[in-house]
Design goal:
Keywords: Metal-binding
Helix content: 25-40%
Structural class: alpha/beta
Oligomer: single chain
Protein name: Metallo-beta-lactamase domain-containing protein
Number of strands: 14
Radius of gyration: 23 Å
Domain Metallo-beta-lactamase: 72-233
Low-confidence stretches: 2-30
């Protein structure tokens, strides 16, 4: 008998006690410690369900998480294994050669290089990738204020092979923030809007705490709870999270909106080191101070 079966069996025995036993037995018949154990078992069962119900990637879907150690940025290479069409989300300028080499080694054609928003902590690699991999199309939201070959509005779709990536507007960190969703695979790429047990800053670059809170609660938290979430950054070594996890454990976004606004107003974070260089460069699709060919 499995652990889950034993829990359910034990629970049913408690519920099906005959009325005579209840009438002739003291209240201490079912010890408080036993009730606590059942509650803990139920909690563990709920957590196991949360973890095991996630969708496995389909055999023809390629996924690779990449990292830039200087800016703590995650980039994501997604591809259709059969058609060899691929997209790259949030590339970093200094890693463009690495990314281009990986794409070529895997035999992919990089169709789109997308940014979730106009970053302030690193320079995007989209412009450089267009040179390294001719035919690549740079993509960003229309509301971002940055240059690109293709602009996206809310709910527009980008296709690579048989897969679709939907752009979902989630402003608040910046006006142009997008969360990219691949519904079939049960994944979303949240940029800086939602981080693992955190969220992006709202104290510069059109940031607004109330807007960000609504974006998360009305757009990201309404995705299925088993959706895997991949942010643009993490500073503690975490690689992914889920809708269910963040709804339960995010220390900021589990507060009500006024509590969240108060938290964000009192972070007292230092001025971003790269913002004065990164934002102007990213307005130009990252075509700024490109590393010279060796």
């Amino acid at each position: 008998m499995t652990v889950v079966s034993r829990i359910l069996s034990a629970s049913s025995k408690i519920l099906l006690l005959p009325s005579r036993s209840i009438a002739t037995t003291s209240v201490s018949y079912i010890k408080p410690s036993a009730l606590v154990q059942v509650a803990q078992s139920t909690s563990r069962l709920r957590n196991v369900t949360m973890l095991t119900e996630r969708k496995p990637f389909s055999p023809d879907f390629f996924f690779r998480q990449l990292f830039d150690e200087k800016s703590w940025t995650y980039s994501y290479l997604l591809g259709d294994i059969n058609s060899k069409e691929a997209v790259l989300i949030d590339p970093v300028l200094e890693q463009a050669k690495r990314d281009a080499k990986l794409v070529q080694e895997l035999g992919f054609n990089l169709t789109y290089a997308l940014n979730t928003h106009m970053h302030a902590d690193h320079i995007t690699g989209t412009g450089y990738l267009k040179q390294l991999l001719p035919g690549t199309i740079s993509v960003i939201s229309e509301a971002s204020g940055a240059k690109a070959d293709k602009y996206l509005r809310d709910n527009e779709v980008v296709k690579f092979g048989r897969f679709e990536l939907k752009a979902m507007s989630t402003p608040g960190h910046t006006n142009g923030c997008m969360t990219y969703v691949v519904e079939e695979q049960g994944v979303a790429f949240t940029g800086d809007t939602l981080l693992i047990r955190g969220c992006g800053r709202t104290d510069f670059q059109e940031g607004d705490s109330r807007t960000l809170y609504k974006s998360v609660h009305e757009r990201i938290f309404t995705l299925p709870e088993n959706f895997r979430l991949f942010p643009a950054h993490d500073y503690k070594g975490n690689m992914e999270t889920s809708v269910a996890e963040e709804k339960q454990y995010n220390p900021r976004l589990t507060k009500d909106i006024d509590g969240f606004v108060e938290i964000m107003a009192n972070l007292n974070l230092p001025y971003p080191k790269m913002i004065d260089k990164a934002v102007p460069a990213n307005r130009e699709c990252g075509l700024y101070d490109i590393p010279k060919e060796e």
